[in-house]
Structures are given as structure tokens and as C-alpha cells.
Amino acid sequence: MKILGIYTNNDYQVAIFEDGTKIRYNKLEAFHPVKPECIDLKITNRCTGTGCAYCHEDSSPDGQHGDILNLPFLDSLLPYTELAIGGGNPLEHPDLTEFLAECRKRKIITNMTVNQKHFVDNWMQLDSMLTFQEIYGLGVSVTRVDEEFLNFVRYMNGMNIVFHVINGVIDPTELEKLYGMGYKILILGYKQFRRGEKFYSPAVQARMDMMSEKLPEILTQFNVVSFDNLALKQLPVKEQMSDEEWEKFYMGDDGQFTMYIDAVKREFAKSSTSTERWPITGDIAEMFGVVRNQF
After folding, report:
1. What is the pTM for the complete model shown?
2. Alpha carbon distance 129, 76 (integer Å)
3. How far apart are CA 168 and CA 210, in angstroms?
4. Among 47, 73, 79, 249, which lies 20 to 30 A Cα-Cα from 37?
5. For residue range 224-260, what is the model confidence (pLDDT) as tens digits?
């Protein structure tokens, strides 16, 4: 695997590999970051053509864009910090290309997440962005696996693409159509927040229960299966692992090495569902210190 970068964050080093693998190491008993390794960055609240009833960001066709060319903290990020860029639909932001170029100048690793529909509608643009490393990884939020979607996935085979599925939204039987093909998936917890709170129902809970039941099977059918921290709370993931495996693979609580920034409202928080938020500043260490103090 090719190493994208190695950097020092206070008392430990981080190595980032081309396939998304991250390794932390030092000779101490713990890691004490002073800056985030990864930032969940919302750049727009505009999203046209989907109207997802469970959207925890309340995105809409008339949502506002963030002023991403004037983010005061950008120069204070460590080289090889990961930015997980999302929205809304980030492809609708008029300054996206210029912003990605500015990140590349600073050796910031940019990844992006789009909805399944926007992936299909914009596959040529996304293929180009991955090929020329405007972004290093692409997350595709999947709700239904149909033949049209699979055709584009097959065409882009070999690209660093991860399928994002929301626990309780997707019917787990849909994942069977992706079994044994060498793909990567990220299972996200269901967020009962904003529209997600209204969308929650017995049907959602039934799909969550089915996901728990099928989890041992799912773990054997993909090259990589990863989870956000909310999914780890909702699904019996730890029960499928030894204590040694958990210690090796668990990457930390929300806010321990990560944070959330809303460039539209120009505020930051521990995560996208945190109700306690603060105005962004020009110093990422200062902002991250506020987040870390929430532990």
C-alpha cells in the first residue's frame, strides 16, 4: 500500500495509506492529539432531487452554501489531516473545485460523500475527481441496489469508493446484491435528529433489528466493513470481535480525534448531531480543545 503521508500530532505519529488505512503509533500508553485527525465538514445545505425524509441535516433545494474559500482555520490544519466533505450535495457548491485545489496545496486529504442519485447523475465528474486525486475517496450513500447503480459501480471498479448505508434506512437484504464483489461498506447509525426524528418508525426499527441479525453474515461478504460510533452503539459489533481486535481497530470516541464543522452556519461541534456548538475561529487547535473538553 502506498503511504499518502506521515505526520506528528503532539506525542504520536499518524500514517495514512492510499486505501484509507490509518495507523497511530508512539511508545506511550495513550495518544494525546492537539489537532483533529479528521474533520466532518459540511460545505452546503443545498440538495436537489432527493428530499430524503430521514435527512438529519434538513438539507433542501434552496439550502445555503458555506463560504468555503474563507475558512480561517484552514491554514492551521496539520498536513494530511482528513476532510470528510459533505452536505447537502457538495457537488452543487460553486466553489468546490477551487476549494479542493486549496486543500491540495496544503496537503490536506479530501474525501467526499454523495447520495446514490447524485453519484449516478454525476459519475463522469466523480470519476475524473478520483482519477486526478481532487478527492482521494468517495462515499456513496446507498438506499437501493438496482442494475443502473451497479453498472456505474462496475465501471468505476478499482476506485477508492465506499458504500455508506444507514442502519434502519436500507433493507439489509439489498446488501446481498453486493456480496462477494470485493467492495467496502460503512454502516452508519440511525440519527434521530431533525428530519430523522420524524422519520423514525416501527419499520425503521424492524430494519435495524434485521441488520443486527444479519451482521455476522455481512462481515464475511465485503473486503472492508466499518462503522461510525453511533452504529457501534446500535449494532452488536463488539460481540463479533475479540478484545484484542477491538483494541486494535477501534479508532476512538466522537471528539477524541475528530470533530464536526458546519461551514454554512460557521460553527463547530463534537459531531453533526451535537446541539452544543460554537463559532469557528482561525485556530483549529483552539477549536479542537473546546471539543476535547466535552469528554
Report:
1. 0.95
2. 25
3. 9
4. 47
5. 999 999 999 999 999 999 999 999 999 999 999 999 9
